Amino acid sequence: MPREFRLKRRVNFYETDAAGIVHFSMFFRYMEEAEHALWRDSGMSISKAGTDLGWPRVGASFAYFRPLRFEDEFEILIRIEEIAEKRIRYSCTLTRDGEKLAEGAMTIACVLRRPNEPMKSTPIPPDVVARLLGAKDGSRDGSPHA
Amino acid sequence: MPREFRLKRRVNFYETDAAGIVHFSMFFRYMEEAEHALWRDSGMSISKAGTDLGWPRVGASFAYFRPLRFEDEFEILIRIEEIAEKRIRYSCTLTRDGEKLAEGAMTIACVLRRPNEPMKSTPIPPDVVARLLGAKDGSRDGSPHA
Amino acid sequence: MPREFRLKRRVNFYETDAAGIVHFSMFFRYMEEAEHALWRDSGMSISKAGTDLGWPRVGASFAYFRPLRFEDEFEILIRIEEIAEKRIRYSCTLTRDGEKLAEGAMTIACVLRRPNEPMKSTPIPPDVVARLLGAKDGSRDGSPHA
Amino acid sequence: MPREFRLKRRVNFYETDAAGIVHFSMFFRYMEEAEHALWRDSGMSISKAGTDLGWPRVGASFAYFRPLRFEDEFEILIRIEEIAEKRIRYSCTLTRDGEKLAEGAMTIACVLRRPNEPMKSTPIPPDVVARLLGAKDGSRDGSPHA
Q1: Chain B partners (3+ C-beta pairs within 8 A)
Q2: b/e for A76-108, b at 16 or more Cβ within 10 A?
């Protein structure tokens, strides 16, 4: 059961470029915004003070079908496609009024970050997996077993 | 003979994020910077006033191997991998002191943009192809036929 | 009666820098977001397709008192301080939980933009002034004359 | 004797907006780029790993006279106007082909940043003042006392 989250958004002026459309690099920021909203919806912050866990991106892509313009209202759907031992893979779809604008993907790694050391890959903590996979979804149904 | 261009760059402070490294979306901007430098090196601007040709991105991706930090000096290598009838496909490699940091790819489309009309795909003009494929390279040899 | 608008916002990760706080340049984007929301709230878009009116910024400033961090929730208050013949002057205050974070100001000019001509200052259309000054506020009272 | 630095720059595409000109918030980033180049030219990095000194901005402003467009080449002149006990004040001028585009100002504070503590204002270390005020300039003359 993939866990997903929908974020509604409006295009800001500074996100457009001289071609009159949203710059293609912004779509990656939109995808990340939705990812972080999913984490918050799971009761977590992806960048918590006082932790040495980090979540750098190891891959990201977008295919673009239609442009976005200033003040367009659109929706970002982010979905967890896979949680491996040390990585999480998402898919992402942007739509406006039900029309597909772009499809993206992103993979993040779980790493330990310690001062003056290089980042080092580490297994994702079980409670993070549990929260991401939707203990919270259950609680929405009012399930006593959630 | 693939056409390529190398751009040297230093990381600006505003390109970093709270994880202390360059935000992953910036790599797409770096790739575009190198692309536009390649076009200038071919004697063209990719966004010339007074033309109705546009070059929207239809796909873009990066795989990230090592992080970049504030004031790091690095190199962006952009290479034209294919020029199809209506599309151009690039590959891109970021390196720092010879160490590979990231590998990217980007495909752009040639479109007609007219006021109050949707963008429409169109064949790449032959002179653009000729310039991108390196007529200019020949002129560097002092060739009288360039 | 100054016209004002309050916009609630949360800090996105890509808005932070390697000092762990929101980059100071972002405050100008926040101020602009609130300005454009005020225009929408007045029934207008500041950048409408098919018009040759533009609203470039002629001055902008911020004084910073406290930093913003990832996922902070804050409020942007934008207020029209003066509408002159060809210019509008705003003030702006950012707060978090009632605590003042920063104070800004911005002046924009009304210009005509025509293809291949330099921008030229022009009087603000009366209906724009009327809308900005709050005809809409009246309609909120259910006034039949609004 | 004010210390100053000139940085040459070309406008990147992603720095433009749908009005076809560089977004006004970018000027603050340009000003910061020149500031950091001045620090490097003084033999320092403004954000060095392993130090607990930070340099947050406490004020910034720009007056805009003429727009910048994609691929414009321009110059950023940053000048140290004053070094007080705990603050540095800069002025900044952007020009293109000798024509003044914008004038800015920025004040930064010297602070101590310690984990889990709020930033705290602190006197600027004497060696930083010495470097910024141009000990290095002297050394360029080959002065034995520099």
Answers
A1: A, C, D
A2: bbbbbeebeeebbbbbbbbebeeeebbbbbbbb
Q: Name the closest residue on chain D to residue A24, using Cα atoms.
A: D14
| Residues in chain A closer than 8 A to C71 (CB atoms) | 36, 40, 45, 47
Give the angle subtended at the CA of B127 by the CAs of B121 and B128, to the nearest 5°: 55
Q: How many CA atoms lie within 13 A of D87 on its CB side?
A: 10
- Please name the residue of chain C whose CA is at the shortest distance from the CA of residue D64: C58
- Compute the Cα dihedral for C87, C88, C89, C93 and give only its sign: negative
The predicted structure's pLDDT at residue A2: 61
* Confidence at A119, pLDDT banded by 50, 70, 90: confident
Pair B25, A31: CB distance under 8 Å: no
Domain borders along chain B are 3-133
Phi and psi angles of residue C110, each rounded to the nearest 5 degrees, phi first: -95, 125
> H-type helices in B42-89, by residue range?
none
C103 to each of C64, C78, C90, how far by Cα in Å?
7, 10, 11
DSSP state of A73: E
Residues D88-107 have a mean pLDDT of: 98
pLDDT tens profile D100-145: 999 999 999 999 988 778 889 999 999 999 999 985 443 333 333 3
D18, D24, D119: residue with CB nearest C28: D24
Chain B CB contacts of D45 below 8 Å = 70-71
| Better pLDDT: C137 or C62 | C62
pLDDT in tens, A37-93: 999 999 999 998 778 999 999 999 999 999 999 999 999 999 999 999 999 999 999
Class of domain B3-133: alpha beta
Residue A17 annotated in active site: yes
Distance CA C14, CA C26 (A): 10
What was the ipTM of the complex prediction? 0.91
